[in-house]
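Batch manifest, entry 17 of 40.
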Amino acid sequence: MTEENGHPAARRGRPRSTGDAERRQAILRAAHEAFVELGFAGTTTAIVAARAKVSKRTIYESFADKTAMFAAVIREHQHLILDLPRPPDENLPLLDTMIRLFRLDIDEDAERSREAILNLMTKESVLFPELSDYLYETEAIRSREALIEWLQEEASRGRIVVEDPAVYAGMLMDIVFGALLPRRRLQRAPDRALRREHIKKRLEIFLRGIHAGGAAPRP
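Output type: structure tokens
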């Protein structure tokens, strides 16, 4: 295309970097859907490419292999598992902070999405231990480490006494995710609401046990 003066017309449209970012997000959405539906073994780059409406070559421009793509999907959904880091000036009671930190205040759709990603991580890590190793080595999963850092920050602010952050972080992970990963999936909204309330009560007991502030039971 040329302008009236004979010079080449400037190419219009969005910058290439924007297009690349949008394609990457489309690939991640398609990969997430495929991994949840078909599992790691059943998902191929061809399936993801077809769902994302891109070529396999485009996928390999963003991800070295299927394992790297899986790790990127997990990393993309970490916000559904832990809302960390917290705002530096946050001054809520500790229980309220933990409710937000562990995403116990999300809506029904987000809760279902969290359950799907937690089940995916758990199932595939058992089936493919090397995949689990890769997720931790690349820090696609670092929930425990992030929780340790938060406990240390709260201790430095004088809001909590932490004798061993690693032990406390492990206890909190068991309290919350032990309940969020039941053997039987909860289909009814009232059952999910009751589970959230039980987790909150467990957190109250934890805070009372370590004599932390902000753990008074709610009316």
